[in-house]
Amino acid sequence: MKIVVPFKSVPDPYAGPGAAAKSVVNPFDEIAIEEALRIRERGEATEIVGVTIGPATVDEQIRSALAMGVDRALRIDDSRALDPYAVARILRALVAKEAPQLVLMGKQAVDDDSNQVGQMLAGLLGWPQATFISKIEFLENKTRAQCTRETDGGLEVIVVNLPAIVTTDLRLNEPRYVSLPGLMKARKKPIEVLTCEQLGVTVQPLTTTLSTARPPKRAAGTRVESVEELMVKLKQEAKVL
Amino acid sequence: MDFSWSDQQRELLDAVDRFAKEQLAYDMIENDRHAVFNHDAWMKCAGFGIHGLLVSEEYGGLGQDPITTVAALERLGYGCKDNGLLFSINAHMWTAIIPLVYNGSEAQKKKFLPGLCDGSIIGGNAMSEPNSGSDAFSLATTAVKKGDKYILNGSKIFVTNGPIADVLLVFAVTDKSKGASGLSAFLVEKDSPGLDLTHKIEKMGVRTSPMGEVFFTDCEVPAENLLGKEGAGSWLFTRSMTWERGCILAASVGTMQRLFETCIRYANERKQGGQAIGKFQQVAGKIVDMKMRIENSRHMLYQCAWAAGHRKAIYLEAAMAKLQISESWVKCCEDAIQIHGGYGYMVEYEVERELRDAIGSKLYSGTSEIQRNIIASLIGL
Question: Nearest CB to B49: which of A22, A60, A179?
Answer without folding.
Answer: A179
